[in-house]
Design brief:
alpha/beta, Alkaline Phosphatase, subunit A, 7-stranded mixed beta sheet, 4-stranded antiparallel beta sheet, 15 helices, about 30% helix, globular, binds 2-acetamido-2-deoxy-beta-D-glucopyranose
């Protein structure tokens, strides 16, 4: 029998351990976002990336994160454009539910007062802190969606970096210039570290976990990065894209003329490039832009490394869920095209990885088809919060629900039975009031797209009887999507099956 005082001490020790055990279950979340970053990362080497990852990418921090994450090798965004893609991911509702296809509308005003990922964590007792580009700023999000955050939002000043005459598509910033005017993403990373120094210790002492969302502006145009990152990509190793032409038999509506690159920057604007299919940029410009993009990717990677270092320093790695995603893909001269804004594989395919303590330390990769709407229910399950229910067909008055699937089963079994079709869409031409909608579906072997008449607000649905173009790419023999087989007789049966599945939509195809 212990003397009473020792007994009491032991009792309190056990009680403390039990409480600590309960508290440990509430994991923090570090929510990292990059802009226009295609899955061109060391971790993505392999047969599934449509254009081989080349040159060897220097992304040690994201590769390290991938090595202790569920790496989604085939994750697809819902729309290859910042505002609609982010709105969809952050609400876990598809574009036909958010009604956001362009930049000007705010989902809370047009579709419903939907709960976002950071808002859900905030409502569950988390300190929700946001900075940089998480939502697409401005009208798209009512200025970074105030209901999502517990504290005032941090934006980096002068986020384009240049002004007037210096308005270039890319700038390698020297050390002096960088010291005089810190790059916006550097300021965002430094702010993240500052916030971690405050919320990290609180999360360990009290039951107040943090949800920290950090959105980087790079590698979005203009490719502005510290000069030192060029050294990872010597000029001699940069290659042109393997397929500088538009797909054979591509319908015109599939094409985007990449005006954002052609007209916004003086160095490219003066070249007077038409942006029409098969009229791409001169070879030397193509190589220079590719090199600058890769350098901007490595710059972003290094900032992510700085933030993770702070987590490690505070011994928080085992208590923190980390997710990373880039809002959609990007073309670097493939198809003779640039930027995003299409339904091609290169625009729809995007990087995503999720590190969950206790589930993913060994590093798990899955080839299962996954979607950006899957992230919200995954983070909720990983954190042990109340699971989200599936949205009803009309969810405009349902605050919190999901149109995706938690990816936790893939952490336990990366080849688990899973959905076999994923959906991306793109509106043409006026994004705010589209006349046409391109619905695109990826299956294991095919990408199939129908561009159909869009019945505008307030109807907001497709008229499948009026078709403007059809695309069928066979990834078993044409992973670069260089041949549209939609009108090829030998594909008639496949086309008809894919068409039925596409029109049935995600809800009827979800066989998990
Ligand atoms: C939307 O939801 C938030 C959070 O629940 C609430 O604070 C806000 O008042 C709601 N807005 C409208 C317009 O209902
Ligand atoms: C650094 O860049 C600035 C701005 O472009 C330029 O004015 C300056 O001459 C450069 N300094 C060096 C040492 O190259
Ligand atoms: C682009 O070039 C390819 C290959 O030469 C050709 O098959 C295709 O028809 C061209 N497309 C257009 C729209 O000119
Ligand atoms: C730019 O290109 C168009 C054809 O695409 C041509 O008509 C026009 O004259 C060109 N402008 C200049 C300034 O070269
Ligand atoms: C690209 O090549 C053209 C033609 O050889 C040349 O006039 C131009 O200065 C080059 N541009 C760059 C940025 O190297
Ligand atoms: C969806 O439901 C809301 C009420 O919750 C209703 O006002 C709206 O008209 C419905 N939309 C459609 C397309 O049925």
């Amino acid at each position: 029998m212990l003397p009473p005082s020792r007994f009491v001490k032991k009792f309190y020790l056990v009680l403390t351990l039990i409480i600590a055990g309960v508290l440990c279950k509430r994991k923090n979340v570090l929510f990292l976002v990059a802009d226009d970053m295609r899955p061109e990362l060391g971790a993505y080497y392999g047969k599934d990336f449509p254009a081989p990852v080349y040159p060897p990418m220097h992304t040690p921090n994201l590769d390290w994160l991938a090595s202790r994450s569920l790496l989604l090798k085939r994750a697809y965004c819902q729309v290859a454009l910042c505002c609609p893609s982010r709105t969809s991911l952050l609400t876990s509702r598809r574009p036909d539910t958010t009604h956001i296809y362009g930049f000007d509308k705010y989902f809370r005003k047009t579709a419903g007062n939907f709960t976002t990922i950071p808002q859900y964590f905030k409502e569950n007792g988390y300190e929700s802190v946001g900075m940089g580009k998480v939502f697409h700023t401005g009208g798209c999000s009512g200025n970074d969606d105030p209901p999502s955050w517990s504290e005032p939002y941090f934006r980096a000043p002068n986020y384009h970096y240049w002004s007037g005459e210096t308005k270039h598509s890319w700038i390698a910033v020297n050390e002096t210039a960088e010291k005089n005017t810190p790059l916006p993403d550097t300021q965002i990373a430094q702010n993240a570290i500052k916030v971690l120094k405050r919320v990290g210790p609180v999360s360990q002492k009290e039951d107040k976990p943090f949800f920290l969302a950090v959105g980087f502006h790079k590698p979005h145009l203009p490719f502005v990065f510290p000069e030192r990152f060029l050294k990872y990509y010597p000029k001699e190793v940069i290659r042109p894209p393997a397929n500088p032409q538009a797909p054979v038999n591509m319908p015109n509506i599939a094409w985007f003329n990449y005006w954002d690159l052609r007209t916004r920057y003086k160095d490219i604007d003066k070249l007077n490039i038409s942006g029409a299919p098969n009229h791409t940029l001169p070879l030397n410009i193509t190589l220079t832009l590719r090199r600058a993009y890769y350098s901007a990717v490595t710059f972003t990677d290094s900032l992510i490394g700085d933030i993770i270092q702070e987590l490690i320093k505070q011994n928080l790695l085992d208590d923190t869920i980390i997710s990373f995603w880039g809002d959609h893909g990007w073309k670097l001269g493939e198809h003779g095209a640039w930027c995003k804004e299409t339904n091609f594989e290169l625009d729809a395919h995007a990087p995503m990885m999720i590190s969950v303590p206790g589930y993913t330390e060994k590093g798990i990769q899955t080839e299962r088809l996954t979607e950006f709407v899957d992230l919200f229910p995954t983070l909720v399950e990983a954190a042990g919060l109340k699971p989200l229910s599936l949205c009803p067909i009309n969810s405009s008055s349902v605050k919190t629900c999901t149109e995706g699937d938690s990816l936790i089963p893939l952490m336990k079994k990366p080849d688990a039975k899973w959905k076999t079709k994923v959906f991306t869409q793109f509106a043409r031409e006026d994004w705010e009031h589209p006349d046409w909608m391109g619905y695109s579906m990826r299956t294991d072997n095919f990408r199939y797209t129908e561009w159909v008449k869009w019945l505008k607000d307030p109807i907001n649905k497709p008229d499948w009887s009026i078709l403007k173009g059809v695309e069928l790419y066979d990834h078993t023999r044409d992973p670069q999507e260089n041949y549209n087989f939609a009108s090829d007789k030998s594909y008639a049966e496949i086309r008809s099956r894919l068409s039925k599945e596409l029109r049935a939509g995600w809800r009827k195809n979800n066989n998990i």
